[in-house]
Amino acid sequence: MKKIYVSKKDSLASIIGKIIKTKDDEIVLYIPRGTEFGASRTNFILLKREVAAAGKSVVMESVDEDVLELADTAGLKAINPFIRRRQRAVSDIVLVVPSRPADIRPVLTTPLKPEITPDRTTREEKPEPAKLLDKEKTELTPRRFLKATGIAVLLTVIAVLVLTFLPRAKIELTLEKKNLDFVGTMVTSAAIKENNFNHNQVTIRGVTFLEKRNITQAYPASGKKYAEKKATGEVVIYNNYSSSPQTLVATTRLVSPDGKIYRLNNSITVPGAEAPGGKITPSSIRASISADKPGEAYNLSPGVKFRIPGFEGSPKYDGFYAELKEPLSGGFVGETSLPSEEDLAAARAETEKRLEEAIKTQLLFNLPPEVKVLNNAYEFKVTETKVNETANEEGKFTITAYGEVKLIGFRESELVDVLGRGLIAKNGNDFRAENYELDYGAPTLNTADGSLNAPLKFKSVWTRTFDDNRFKREAAGKNRADLQALVFAIPGIQSGEVRLWPFWVIKVPKNADRIIVDVK
Fold it and tell me: What are the C-alpha distances in Å from 243 to residues 276, 278, 283?
């Protein structure tokens, strides 16, 4: 017979595999406390089926009473190895008679005749039976005393364990159920301050969310045209002259080392330089410029230094200057790509669609997890569109769309709560939802007042509320009759069954952990 020990993490499949691989047909399966396998009755049922199919037999061993009961209910033999009855060897007490001395003659079976003498008559008496010596009497030795004491202690411990861990009570209850349905309309809005229910409409507090975003997309231009474009970019203008600020008006000229003229696109004021201790530290400001003439010749690489010809002939000429940090580009003369009306219409539609999806995705990603949003329960609006018809080097123009999405959501838990309280009010409040189904129709969004209407179907099953912990406390220590009376005093009880285990138990255990309540 093979003995297999189950670990706490062994699965049903691994245990069956060990049994099937074992050559022995009879297996003892030891299951300790707290295993995953021992937590489910289904595992025992499946184990029994697979073991039988493999032509083997299995006996369960465990000190966990829950495991023993589950195995027993599944039809498997199960024992607790520490409280099994063991057969004890009993020694016969043998009376030992001391050996007969050599000079003692055996007693004759025929009595001797008395011998008569002249002086007196003497009769020979029969010898008395031999008596046992005191030292041969049975004595209670220290070893026997310790053995007897150990057996008594063991039996006491076993009795305590049996009385403490074996008794259990299982109570199966079937409580009253109700099917409650609602067909009507749901209305939600951020303006609603209190949830309400009537026979065909439920109003729920809503939450409004708003998300704004813009995207830029590039599209190929199918048209052609002659175009002249001026190079554009940014420069940094320095004041290395004085601590006084200097204003430069729009179109102020800047001259490159090779004599090309560029102009400021806007008026700017160059801040005054710092002069701690009389030493000037230049100040600066960024400004956008455009080439004075179109053409690729005006495209420049970074590092070019510009002078301001308006200051020529004065000390400011050397004190004010500009420097190119990034390329000046875009200068062009010739035929270029141009978007047609069809290009523009298709680009707008595609960009707005992508913008709507981008805002919706961002908005839904940021929603709190408890907020429910129905399909299409939002409003999308394009607020602005900008088109740059100038094609780039790849022949593509760009379009930028700005938009926003507004949606109305609600907390579904509040909806279920107000529906439940409204439906169950006429049946009493001592019911709870066992399960429910919600079916929403197509919503209608009213942007004027920020409300959302949607058809609603609600199907639910409700059962009587039951405090099993309180019931266990009340049932602890009761006899079978009192326990049955307690069961059938439960409001809404449909049926109940009481089982005490083992068979000799006549009262419910006082330990609530030994009481199992199964509510159906």
Answer: 10, 10, 9
